[in-house]
Design a protein that fits this description.
Distance between the termini: 105 Å
Number of strands: 5
Number of helices: 7
């Protein structure tokens, strides 16, 4: 019996016919595992790339682009004024000794104008007329006081005098001179404390810088 003859075949010989031969195949489950891993890597890669794109759109790149556009559209203070522009000169405020103040009492309380004038004199102001208020204002001022002066005194003398009082109203008229009127009203109690007045005057002479329109851009 040939060794190629399976046992139990009685010694018969069999011929293998046909042109197909058995082939050794890898288990199919390994291929599935490999394909699954490849698909997972692709999905993770696409997800990460998409996340980066969203971050760029809603995060740094868009804000950077907007900031760059804002800088291009927003002119600076120097460019807004022109290449040959000079910084605006700050008008110095007058000293109290350069101001003449008329003190008028518009209340029924007697002696109020004189005591107030004496205190202003101690603080360096020149005192002009002292007495009762004109009929147009007498017993008609409900607030603390009214400061009256020429139109040219709005940006300087009236502001300096206003540092000595609280809650005052500033007005102008067509007077020719430079004297100021302090009209004491019913709500007046006393002048501001010397320390408070000096602090207000210091802030007035050295104001904090305000941002320009170009800075706000």
């Amino acid at each position: 019996m040939s060794m190629l003859t399976p046992p139990g075949m009685g010694g018969k010989k069999y011929r293998i016919t046909g042109d197909r031969y058995p082939r050794m195949r890898r288990p199919r489950h390994r291929r599935r595992i490999v394909l699954t891993l490849v698909a997972t890597v692709c999905v993770l890669g696409l997800t990460g790339w998409g996340s980066l794109q969203l971050i760029d759109v809603f995060g740094g790149k868009s804000s950077t682009a907007q900031a760059a556009q804002g800088k291009e559209k927003c002119p600076t203070a120097d460019s807004a004024k022109g290449p040959h522009a000079k910084p605006a000169a700050v008008r110095p405020l007058p000293e109290p000794s350069a101001l003449t103040v008329n003190v008028f009492n518009a209340t029924p309380r007697s002696g109020l104008a004189k005591s107030t004038a004496d205190e202003l004199k101690k603080r360096g102001f020149k005192i002009g007329k002292v007495g009762n208020a004109p009929a147009a204002y007498d017993k008609k001022i409900k607030g603390s006081a009214i400061l009256l002066g020429p139109k040219s005194a709005v940006d300087g003398p009236l502001k300096v005098l206003a540092t000595q009082l609280t809650g005052v109203e500033q007005k102008t008229d067509d007077r020719k001179g430079t004297e100021l009127d302090l009209l004491i009203g019913d709500g007046f109690k006393e002048l501001a404390k010397p320390q408070e007045a000096e602090k207000s005057l210091a802030l007035l002479t050295q104001p904090s810088p305000r941002p320009s329109k170009a800075d706000k851009c």
